[in-house]
Amino acid sequence: MKSNYMNTAQLKELMTAPPMSAARHAEVMRKRIAQRRMLEEARELKKAGDSDHLKR
After folding, report:
1. Which of 17, 19, 39 is nearest to 28 (CA)?
2. Which residues contact 28 (CB under 8 A, 6 or more apart)?
3. pLDDT at 23
4. How far apart are CA 5 and CA 12, in angstroms?
5. Which pairs from 1-8 meet CB under 8 Å and 24+ separation?
6. What is the distance of C-alpha 34 from the center of its chain?
7. What angle do CA 4, 14, 34 make, to 5 degrees?
8. In this predicted model, what pLDDT tens digit does every residue of 1-56 receive, in sequence order?
9. Roughly how many angstroms between the first and final C-alpha of the chain, as a whole number?
10. Overall pTM > 0.70
């Protein structure tokens, strides 16, 4: 799980930065969802492989 404390930006930098556009937010969310799906699929494949290995 990601830590919420990994961002080292200063508060002033965060407060003066322009807000994220809707298009950029959508892009970030699509990327995050794609990464999560790849991880879930890899876990499922590993679990399926482990169970197949045990059946032999």
Report:
1. 19
2. 20
3. 96
4. 16
5. none
6. 8
7. 50
8. 556 666 677 888 878 888 899 999 999 999 999 999 999 999 999 988 877 665 55
9. 34
10. no
Looking from the CA of 55 toward its CB, the CA atoms found within 13 Å total 6
Query: Does the CA dihedral 22-27-35-9 come out positive or negative?
Result: negative
Q: Assign 3-class secondary structure to the chain.
A: CCCCCCCCCCHHHHHHCCCCCHHHHHHHHHHHHHHHHHHHHHHHHHHHHHHHHHHC
* Residue found under tokens 């959508």: 26
